[in-house]
Amino acid sequence: MAGGAVKATAFLQRPPLILPHRHPVNHLNVRRRFAGANSINLTNSFACRCTTTNAASGVLTIAPLEVNTIKETCSKWEWRGYTINYFKYQGQNGQKSNPPLLLVHGFGASVAHWRRNIPTLAQTSTVYAIDLLGFGASDKPIGFAYTMETWAQLILDFLEEIVQKPTVLVGNSVGSLACVIAAADAQNSLVKGLVLLNCAGGMNNKAIVDDWRIKLLFPLLWFIDFLLKQKGIASFIFERVRQRESLRNILLSVYGNKDSVDDDLIEGTST
């Protein structure tokens, strides 16, 4: 994201507990065959160009969107009985010939975390950003079985029902992983390409990793999974992280540009 790579993020509201991403052998083989036979290419490369100049530094910049502006102009989409929040933005110079972009946030984040990226990306493409089920202003159903497959299917359904064009998926952290699964599972040409930012891998790699040295860590990894499924332990962790000062410290530790960690960013995390 703008202002430095984001390795992790946090939240003020309690996020959903994610179930481990499991790979039935036959399903995994189908994905491998499909992905191998259907390579994803961005046939026409395009660059994002800024159009305004910072007089003090001489650097071309575009002002980020205000969090309140994003909140006020978001749209709602009904998916399987749940309300999903999303944002659509196109700059004045946006070229309709370029594929649209769908931005998918990471764990604990929301549409507002892309506020610095959206105006620049919109110079060349129509930009969509979505709050995954359980995050941001989307519904947060209690007791729902949150899985990576669920989010991947949400992404595919969004492309089919809302965007309705071949789209480049841009994901951060857990959002990247959901985008990869969506691309592998896509049964049509709506996924044009992938952009992965700090792609998460720990949730789904235990079933397919072959390195014996990593396999030695399996007992520890499964133990961590077990602990995170215990509501008391998970609640304790979430309560510690959701404190505003803790959130600020976490964001400062993962943002390359510390100036990007402002009140708007923290506010965007809490929506």
Write up what this structure looks like.
The structure is a single chain. It contains ten helices and eight strands. The protein is of the alpha/beta class. It folds into two domains: 62-204, 3-Layer(aba) Sandwich (Rossmann fold); 211-271, no CATH class. A hairpin with a 6-residue loop joins strand 1 and strand 2 (60-61). It is globular and about 55 Å long. Mean pLDDT is 75; it is low at 1-15, 17-28, 30-35 and 39-55.
* Name of the CATH superfamily of the largest domain: Alpha/Beta hydrolase fold, catalytic domain
In N-to-C order, the SSE pattern is HEEHEEEHEHEHEHHHHH
Characterize the overall form: globular
Helical amount among residues, as a percent range?
25-40%
Q: Class of the largest domain, according to the CATH hierarchy?
A: Alpha Beta
Domain AB hydrolase-1: 99-225
Pfam families: Abhydrolase_1 (PF00561)
Organism: Helianthus annuus
Keywords: Hydrolase
Keywords:
six-stranded mixed sheet, alpha/beta, two-stranded antiparallel ribbon, 14% strand, 271 residues, 36% helix, Rossmann fold, globular, single chain
